[in-house]
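stuck on this one:
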Amino acid sequence: MIVGRVAARRASIGSGDHRRAAWVVTGLATAASTYALDGFAVAVGALLVASGALAGLGRPLLLAFLAVTYVAWAAGMRVNLAANWALLVRTGVSTNALSKAAHDIARARKARPQTRRWAASAAYVVWELAKEVPYYAGAFGATLVTDAVSGRDAIVFLAGTNLGAAVYEYGLACATRLFLGSGRASVAGEGGGELRTTHDGRPPGAVRRGAQLRHRVVPDLDDS
């Protein structure tokens, strides 16, 4: 009985360490991803303005193009949301701290996986939309400060940042998938306390038990 209590206490301490480690990794990943995304998006926006590629478009067409870039950004984010959910389930880590917080709150309330996924994705989108405010403030604020930047330039810049964000979101999703498929994710999953399902959503133990059962029930054809 005493041994059992000691083992339970050690397991509780280990679980707490794993959760703290997952949050540390999430914080670092969020900071790195935020700076990388902003830097890349701003660079693409500035290059699009400097290139003059859209100089011949009128304002209505520029606004239509801006809307198209938002669709592209949403498509890239959609792919990354799926990768972020897979990362959370497999490792307990996320590239977005707000997304992980929403996921962990939902999990603490014993929410269903579908609800946890919705919470994590919604928080991720809210985070990304909030980061749009500095872009708009900087782009249109510049038009008020200097005559060298026009309203057309601001629209082109925003369209470029959206395209850069779309490319980055898709690239981050691909990098996340590569990590999950590299074999290192299993170690991280043990640390995050979230490695509970396989790629098809079944617990690893269930897969093993199913394979053992099939081996027992279905005779080997070579033996018949």
